[in-house]
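Final report, section 2: Outcomes. Of the targets proposed, SUN domain-containing protein is the one most frequently requested by collaborating groups, and we therefore present its record in full.
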Amino acid sequence: MNKLNIDRLLSFEENTDDQQQNIINYIDLHNRQKEDHEKLEEIKNQWDNLQNGFSQTEKDLSYITNVLKSLSQNQERLSKEYESLVETIPEQVAEITERTFRQDIVGLPDYALESGGARVISKLTSETYKLQPEGFVGILSNLLHIAIKPGRPPTEAIQPAVHAGECWAMKGSSGVLTLKLAKSIIPTQITIEHLAKEISFSISSSLRFIEVYAIHDIKAFSSEYITGNRSLVGKEKPYATLIGNFEYDPSKKSLQTFDLQRLITNPIQYIQFQIMDNWGNPDYTCIYRIRVHGTPVSLLQNNNNNNNNNNNNNNHDDGPLETEKLIKEN
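The predicted structure is given below as tokens.
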């Protein structure tokens, strides 16, 4: 090989080395540009995240501000309600105390109490509801007049205790209860008591409309009542006077006292309650307790004697006071 060829070969190798180095430099530059681009994209993403974070923070701050504002308004409202409630507490306590007291005791003598001497006049009182089974056994028991589960007697209505289920279940939605009172009195008030609504399953069996009759002649009254097939008298007779009619609503108070609208002048010992309707139960009416209040004959006589003595001492000749006036004074 001559010298010229050797020089050319060496020159070619040098050029090849330069080209390789250029290629290496290009690749290196490209890689660095790629890394720079990736870093730039990462920085851009971080910036976008920061912007989104700032935007969400603003929304969160706005939400928190609204919540705090709402809480402040609720606090003001609750504060006003609390002040209003505190003002009504004494009235509510007084009402509860009065209700509790009236549930425990009326504070008036009860002349219809059996243990005090009162009695139920059975022949002048409606039938007791009897629980009969369904089907053939029920039909058979009705034909034979046999009660599978007889109800409690009418005397339950004049007992001192009132417990769930311990009532006189009168047959039907209307009927009568006739009593001989413990003493002869001028009746002035009656009290009706049902199971308290808080422990009662239903008030549909409670009596609703009731009429009260003072019986002056029990024999005449009994004769017409029995002849009329135990139906209601329905109107006044010479031997019976309508002295009151009321509507009893157990949803208001379980124990309610009613003033009689008419005061009679002659004492009586027999009284009849005519239940005209109940609160919707067609089968039976539950009567837990009925009280009768009034002025006994003994008190009337004492008042008459005292008034006569006062009249004699004062040399007055006005005569005895009317019985009705004595009732009002007592």
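The two ends are 160 Å apart (CA to CA).
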